Amino acid sequence: MADYMVDEDSGARAIRYGGLAVAIHWVSAVLILTQVYLGFAFGNFPKGSAERTELFTWHKTVGVVILLLALTRLAVRLIDAPPPYPADFPKWERRFAVWNHRIFYVLMIALPLTGLAAVSKRAVGGMTELAGGTWFPVVPIPALGGAHEVLAFTMIGLVALHVLAALKNQFLNRGPVADRMPPFRSTRR
Asked: CATH code at 161?
């Protein structure tokens, strides 16, 4: 089965992502990094403490925002497909990048859903409280054991790979693929 993101190219130059896709990308990146911090931070406080409860509430809130943003991002991506890679970007790297992004989408949806499943036992009327006194429906399925944590560490690994690949393309390869996502730019003459 052909995969246009791997098989098609934009020629010698890169086509940049549109403004909405760029904004969603960078907001998602900040939220995911914030979420990783919150996920580790609330565990440093004793159970039942006000600090832990506050950080956990923010962890749930950011998770819900990531879920809603991921669904928006997926809709934008389906309406306005990402630009193909430049011709000089090797197919094995294209395939790796494409699948890294696809797994990101799965995780940006699965992580919040497994988190909502994990808090469903303590839900009030099928809802969990978020920051600012807002409420959001939980996922009424049994908690999936350590699935949320396994997915979180998978996300951390993918983020690290994504950042390393971006840095490689910007500073080592210096090719046109770096032009796809602002503020990066090709530095090759």
From this structure: 1.20.950.20
The structure's pTM equals 0.91
DSSP 14-25: PPPPPHHHHHHH
Long-range CB pairs of 131-134, under 8 A, 24+ apart, other chains included: 131/57, 131/58, 131/61, 132/61, 134/61
Torsions phi, psi for 128 (to 5 deg): -120, 145
Run of H or E including 45: none
Q: How many CB atoms lie within 10 A of CB 104?
A: 18
Q: Is residue 60 part of a domain?
A: yes
User: Would residue 189 count as lying in a domain?
Assistant: no
pLDDT digit string, tens, across residues 29-83 = 999 999 999 999 998 999 999 999 999 999 999 999 999 999 999 999 889 889 9
User: Would residue 185 count as lying in a domain?
Assistant: no
Query: Which range marks the domain in which residue 57 is found?
Result: 4-180
Three-state DSSP at 85 gives strand
Q: What are the residue ranges in the chain where pLDDT is below 50?
A: 1
